[in-house]
Amino acid sequence: MIANITLNWPSVIEFGVGKVKTLATHLKDNKRIYFLADPPIMSTIKPLIDELKGHGKEILVSNEVVPEPPFEALEKLLSGVSNFAPDCVVGVGGGSAMDLAKLVAVLFSREQKITEVIGIDQVKRRNVKLITVSTTSGTGSEVTPIAVLTDVANKLKKGVVSKYLVPDVAIVDPALTLSLPPAVTAATGMDAMTHCIETYTNKFSHPIIDNLVIEGVRLLAANLERAVTHGDDLNARTACALGSLYGGLALGPVNTAAVHALAYPLGGEFKISHGVSNSVLLPFVMSFNLPSCVEKYKNIGNALGINCDCADEKIARKAIMKIKELSNACKIPAGLKELGIPENAIPHMAESAMKVTRLLNNNPREVTLKDATAIFQMAYNGVIDL
Amino acid sequence: MIANITLNWPSVIEFGVGKVKTLATHLKDNKRIYFLADPPIMSTIKPLIDELKGHGKEILVSNEVVPEPPFEALEKLLSGVSNFAPDCVVGVGGGSAMDLAKLVAVLFSREQKITEVIGIDQVKRRNVKLITVSTTSGTGSEVTPIAVLTDVANKLKKGVVSKYLVPDVAIVDPALTLSLPPAVTAATGMDAMTHCIETYTNKFSHPIIDNLVIEGVRLLAANLERAVTHGDDLNARTACALGSLYGGLALGPVNTAAVHALAYPLGGEFKISHGVSNSVLLPFVMSFNLPSCVEKYKNIGNALGINCDCADEKIARKAIMKIKELSNACKIPAGLKELGIPENAIPHMAESAMKVTRLLNNNPREVTLKDATAIFQMAYNGVIDL
Q: Which of chain B's residues have a Cβ under 8 Å away from the Cβ of A168?
């Protein structure tokens, strides 16, 4: 029987070119608005902010977005915003900007401390409106109940998962991604691909989500390389934005698995960006998961454009190779070595990854410490062996 | 390029067997709750209502749900609830119960009259929480921005479309549909099928919605007859509930077309239920639309289980026949004659239908008065001629 599921999505999702302009409408009833915006997007949203000020609204803007944000970065933002007491928080940017904005929205009242909300369902409430505008394709954070912080002292990424982090309004305007540099387009695009694949092959996958993410795989496979090499191609950008949105919609109801769990130490210890970490690990974790995922990888293979009259397992293997090829074509570093991670860090990284049980529990194949070590070892040289 | 779209869905959708029990959680913060419930569901929700009362909540329950509700029925409900001043309105039932609950939620404050909210975006605001629990599969009303009333004086159905009618929480629990009689299962199931087909072939169709509704067609085609003939089959009921939910999610962003427009006079003038009206007309409108929909009907045909190595147009025709066969297998009346509608009512019904421009504008093929008359004429005898 079709399993139970709770879909907790923004009540409004604005998708499409030029949709950033709907922001004014969604802020109509707000009087004190806090913007947290990635610096490169400021020139795009400045006219809107000026217009809002012209309508007598109080606006506070911060551009202090730190990649893979540590607790301290959030603490600093909270100090700046608590006295302002906004009635709406708007996060404009990539995953870091949106994650920080989501956390500011639930924490600025100082009712709870950062450390008190780490984990699942620890946030008590949110009293203000929350809007996200994504400028990458992408983390999917614009529609998820998740925000991730870096615990620098413990060299770990820590997740906050709560329905109160789901924004009221999410705006996905592909035109905002036109100026993204190729490396960011590649890493965020492969991150979105990882979301689609890890939710589709998830132990808790669900047909409602499968419909979306398999289409996400298709869109990203067909358009990501083009978006990387021809950043001004709005068709390719729009297709990638939709693929990314599909991946994002899957993260709340199903969430990711071993790729993300293993990627955490790369970010936590070596400050490798979330997108790059996932992209590098994806084909190696897929290879590890193959025995548990033949039929699903076959479907992914079809969505990747593989049409051969051969056994399911062969299509499944081709699917993994295709992901690796796409990653190479997008100039994602091949492996951990190329990322500058020392080989002797592997045992420690494997131990760290094993702590991310929240995500490892979702993986279609059980991952032991030995398995995690072996996957990192395979990913070290970056050569896939199928 | 992929077109723009606004998705305005409930921020929480609870799908699955037993999910009605989540209602208590969603009412946690409410103190004065108004229930509008279809009489047959009362025995199911009474324990929950008693529990809520036990927790000190004020509860007002009405069972005055009228099928194809006229303005007067809503007016009567509003008189009963205005003094109660609820902080949450819960609609439990089929389309009529949910539509009425949605309208009560926006109108009980008496800031606007019923006649002032007819049409698109006329509702000014909603100040209370709104929850829908659907007991049919279905109208999809649990997730839509739409409520439909009957204007008895003018013998017309009139729609209210507003983002304020989108519930905060929608609960779709297939177990609640187990006791539905075969005729209601059939009519509501074919209504859901109509939603999927009319949004898929819509002039304003969108890939986000296409993904959902084509799967809705597949689920309903594979499970509806079983749900009609074996009402206690929870697998079939769950599949139909999901198909219906997909259709519902499509109605806000894309909405229906000529089937629904032509169905309005059947309800408005002859009190034929919404589901039966749509079911009877669906194959005949599909036949009229065929020249504009060959490729889409081919895809629908595939989703209906038609796999033949023949030309697209042939599969498209087979798809229409398959819908007619499914309708017959579910014992939906064959045509207008069988519904007791006199043949001489056709010209007047066609004129009425032409007024529903809101939906006719979505149709893939332009419908003139002459076309509408011809479609009704074909549907009169109930024999499809392809």
A: 11
In a 13 Å sphere around the CA of A60, the CA atoms on its Cβ side amount to 17
Extract long-range pairs of B357-361: CB within 8 Å, 24+ residues apart.
B358/B120, B358/B159, B358/B161, B358/B255, B359/B255, B359/B256, B359/B257, B359/B258, B359/B260, B359/B261, B360/B257, B360/B258, B360/B261, B361/B203
Residue B377 Cα, gap to closest chain A Cα (Å): 39
C-alpha A265/C-alpha A260 separation (Å) is 10
Residues of B in contact with A5 (CB under 8 A): 15-16
CATH of domain B12-177: 3.40.50.1970
Which CATH number, 1.20.120.1780, 2.120.10.30, 1.20.1090.10, 3.40.630.30, labels domain A182-381?
1.20.1090.10
Beta strands in A153-270, from DSSP E residues, in sequence order: 156-161, 169-172
CA distance B274 to B272: 6
Same fold, A12-177 and A182-381: no
pLDDT digits (tens, 9 = 90+) for A94-120: 999 999 999 999 999 999 999 999 999
Structure-token match 């909405």, residue found: B255
CA distance B150 to B172: 26
Domain boundaries along the sequence of chain A = 12-177, 182-381
Contact call for B13 and A19, based on CB within 8 A: no
3-state secondary structure of A143: helix
Q: If you write DSSP's letter for every residue of A173-195 in order, what string do you get?
A: -GGGGTT--HHHHHHHHHHHHHH
Q: What are the tens digits of pLDDT across the range B197-248?
A: 999 999 999 999 999 999 999 999 999 999 999 999 999 999 999 999 999 9
Interface of B with A in 239-258 (CB under 8 A): 239, 242
Q: Which two tokens stand for residue B28?
A: 């946690």
Chain B residue nearest residue A167, CA to CA: B11
Contacting B residues, span 13-52, partner chain A, CB-CB under 8 Å: 13-19, 22
Which residue from B11, B15, B211 is facing A11, i.e. has the nearest CB? B11
**What pTM did the predictor assign?**
0.96
